[in-house]
Amino acid sequence: MTKAVYMYDDNNQFTSTKLVEDDYQISGNETFIAVPDGQYQPSKFTGTEWVGTDKEVYDAEQEKLYQAYLKEHPELAPTVSGEMLAINALGMQVAQIQAKLTTTNGGAS
């Protein structure tokens, strides 16, 4: 049989997992305590449990990494197509016409 060992760095942040035999003896920076499923990274080991990051902090960090990646690879940045611009312009025109009709008809639409 095997079981999982969860490893962490000198700052107690989760780094990786490995499978070991049941008689394995953990060494420094290892634990048999599992990182909970669905926990946002980075997870930090307190000595008795893993504490994850708030979703807002995680999302902000992911956005920062994404923007840095796009800065290094601008050719991969999403672009706005001509069709998308045309659809947006038409939507704006419809909204303006509806506003004029509402005003002209005394507030009835």
What is the tally of beta strands?
Answer: 5
* Helix/strand order: EEEEEHH
Which descriptor suits the 3D outline? elongated
Output the number of helix runs: 2
End-to-end C-alpha gap: 71 Å
> What kind of oligomer do you see?
single chain
Beta-strand residue percentage: 15-25%
For the biggest sheet, the summary is: 3 strands, antiparallel
Residue share in helix: 25-40%
Low-confidence stretches: none
Structural class: alpha+beta
Q: Identify the strand order in the major beta sheet.
A: 2-1-3
Rounded mean pLDDT score: 91
Rg, alpha carbons: 26 Å
At a glance:
With 109 residues, the chain is an alpha+beta fold. Helix content is 38%, strand content 19%.
General description of the model:
The chain has 109 residues and is of the alpha+beta class. The chain has a domain of 52 residues. It has 2 helices and 5 strands, in the order E-E-E-E-E-H-H. The strands form 2 sheets. A 3-stranded antiparallel β-sheet has the order 2-1-3, with no helix packed on it. A two-stranded antiparallel sheet has the order 4-5. A hairpin with a 5-residue loop joins strand 1 and strand 2. The longest helix is centred in the C-terminal third of the chain and has 23 residues. The protein is elongated and about 80 Å long. The model has no long low-confidence stretch (mean pLDDT 91).
